Amino acid sequence: MVGGADGTTLQAQGVADAPRGADRERCAAAYAAAFPQFAGSLADEGIVLVRVALSWARHGDFRASVPVVSDVPLDG
After folding, report:
1. Which residues of the chain are modeled with pLDDT < 50?
2. Which stretches of sequence are listed as region Disordered (predicted)?
3. How many domains does the chain contain in total?
């Protein structure tokens, strides 16, 4: 489960690994494209890139007086 101070959460299940070689480069490029403000962090050897293949996810939005919780559709 990941949550932030903004009142939203993401619960997730899946299989994680630390990609290497060409797989790591492909994942790093996808990360840099999605989060260009953090792309420079990938050059730090202390940063570990983790890839997660999700099997299930649920989003929770607790910002309103009535929470909204829904399963996240995953692409096959």
Report:
1. none
2. 1-20
3. 1
